[in-house]
Design a protein that fits this description.
Blueprint: E1 2-8, H1 15-26, E2 29-35, H2 37-45, E3 52-56, H3 57-65, E4 75-80, E5 82-87, H4 98-107, E6 111-114, H5 118-129, H6 133-137, E7 140-143, H7 149-153, E8 159-163, H8 164-168, E9 173-178, E10 187-193, H9 200-210, H10 216-221, E11 225-226, H11 231-234
Parallel strand pairs: 1-2, 1-3, 6-7, 6-8
Antiparallel strand pairs: 3-10, 4-10, 4-11, 5-8, 5-9
Helix pairs in contact: 1-9
Length: about 240
């Protein structure tokens, strides 16, 4: 059997291990379509369907209210923060405080961030709040989809801003660190079944794999903070 999953790129570093475990246990195949969270939500609202989705918690809740996702199946998987990366071996700027981060962003020759991902929406709002949006956007490469660290690894851009888990997925960059905690709005990423999945039992089993204690090492290695397990069991699974 084939399971179709629409998933945010924020969890892509953990998925290969978890999917391989699921496929081996269930004798099934998983087809994963990765994209920025807001782009996936737009596609789903436009009529695209799958068996399960991994999105921000806000996105899952919105689509559940519309009757597209099964809200009762939703489970919070991980928490993620936004970080900054430079080309491997390049000097690492100080971003430990708000003022240090502002100075680093203003001093950078170029910066890449996402247009439709959760991190890009957050960063666009952050530089507005810091009063540096005009200066940063004048030298920014705002990518519609994909990993913002890739142009940094190629030497085309000096700094990348994205979820730490997405920065970790790019060879050839060094992660300077997360942005200051006082500025962060951590994103919670959750999984849910579609309201009418083709393979309901298979979709449920996939969510159980993602929400199991055994998934913790894969999420941690990908730069994500696993959340409390057992949510599916508590719902009476």
């Amino acid at each position: 059997m084939m399971l179709k999953v629409l998933a945010t790129r924020a969890v892509q570093g953990a998925l290969p291990v978890l999917i391989a475990r699921f496929e081996g246990a269930m004798s099934a195949q998983v087809a994963t379509d990765l994209g920025p969270t807001n782009a996936l939500i737009a596609r789903i609202k436009g009529g695209e369907r799958a068996d399960a989705a991994i999105l921000t918690r806000q996105g899952v809740d919105e689509l559940a209210r519309l009757g597209i996702l099964d809200g009762a199946s939703a489970v919070d998987l991980v928490r993620s923060v936004v970080g900054l990366a430079v080309k491997a071996g390049a000097p690492r700027p100080d971003i430990g405080t708000t003022e240090a981060l502002k100075a680093a962003l203003l001093a950078a020759r170029s910066i890449s961030y996402s247009r439709l991902g959760a991190s890009g929406v957050f960063f666009a709002g952050l530089i507005e709040r810091l009063g540096i949006a005009e200066a940063v956007n004048a030298k920014a490469t705002i990518i519609p989809t994909g990993l913002t660290g890739e142009p940094v690894a190629r030497g085309e851009v000096e700094m990348a801003v994205q979820q730490v888990s997405e920065l970790k997925a790019v060879p050839g960059v060094d992660i300077v660190g997360p942005l200051p905690a006082s500025l962060q709005t951590p994103s919670v990423f959750s999984a849910a079944e579609f309201a009418s999945p083709t393979g309901a039992n298979l979709a449920r089993a996939f969510l159980e794999t993602l929400a199991s204690p055994e998934a913790t090492p894969a999420f941690t290695a990908a730069g994500l903070e696993p959340l409390v397990r057992g949510a599916l069991a508590e719902k009476g699974s």
